[in-house]
Amino acid sequence: MKISVFGASGNVGSSAAFNIAIRKLADELVLIDNPRPDLVALHAMDMNTAVTGQDMVVRVGHDEDIRGSDVVVVAAGSTQFAASRLEVLPQNLPIIQDISKKVRQFCPKAVVITATNPVCPLNYGMYRCINLDRKQIIGYTYNDSIRFRMRLAQALGVPSSQVEGTVIGEHGDSQVLLFSSVRVKGRPVNISEEMKQSLRRQVPDGQKVLEEFRVKTGRTAAWTTGVGLAEVCRAIVKDTGEVIPCSITLDGEYGCRGLSMSVPTVLGKGGVREILETKLANDEQELLLSSIEVLKPYMKYVEELLHLC
């Protein structure tokens, strides 16, 4: 099993690589970050030491070294600070376009996981550029559901390990919290309207606080994303059939075509086995339609920039 990580010297890329390494999800882990060769070399040396005895190799690579990869994680992107994830789309789309060419050339059978923001438009861009099965090309959006579950557990006064809950739509401000999906110990829970409104504020507001800290410190939510990316990789390489929300280009699901957004997916070998179309409450359906309208212009922008219209 071979996994390659683009942007492996950055906060998210290095965290993802480390979490993949300590879980021994690959026999070979290739770290790529051409702009910062010394830092990525340091990470590779350090990780190799950390996984001594696990019979795996962590090494620095260049573009051609992704050849034969089973999974490619994309965490490369602009270091520009922005108030919204969508603001860095013009800077990050050319990076995605460049990586897509390398994947198509060296490892066209790989599952590609895009973690670079804005995830939904960039995952769509990756799909349009790479011209592979859409179920191989997924965007990382799991953090939204992780944060939703954490806030739910706090509000309900129960351990977070007992809580299930899913967020769909844009990986951004218009994300949709599915209260109809909430389970505690596997059982449905009645959530008051007051709690719903509170959580609809708290979850996005928490992300805004993280963005403010990112501007101040130069760091992002790397630990959460690294753990989540490793969980997505595990579901794929171990062929677990686990349900994890991911952004995927839709082809009629949820009434959408030509648009990538976060939806519940069954993950396994080859990427997305199945897209689950969850029955939504009326208010959730309305919020999802609003989120789709937010995303549409950005999908069109991606097509125009890639000259694909």
Structure overview:
With 309 residues, this protein is of the alpha/beta class. It has 2 domains: 2-140, Rossmann fold (3-Layer(aba) Sandwich); 142-305, Lactate dehydrogenase/glycoside hydrolase, family 4, C-terminal (L-2-Hydroxyisocaproate Dehydrogenase, Chain A, domain 2), CATH 3.90.110.10. Helices cover 44% and strands 22% of the residues. The chain contains 8 helices and 12 strands. The strands form 2 sheets. Strands 3-2-1-4-5-6-10-11-12 form a 9-stranded mixed sheet, sandwiched between helices. Helix 2 links the parallel strand 2 and strand 3 (57-60). Helix 3 packs parallel to helix 4 (119-130). The longest helix has 25 residues, at 193-217. The chain starts with a strand and ends with a helix.
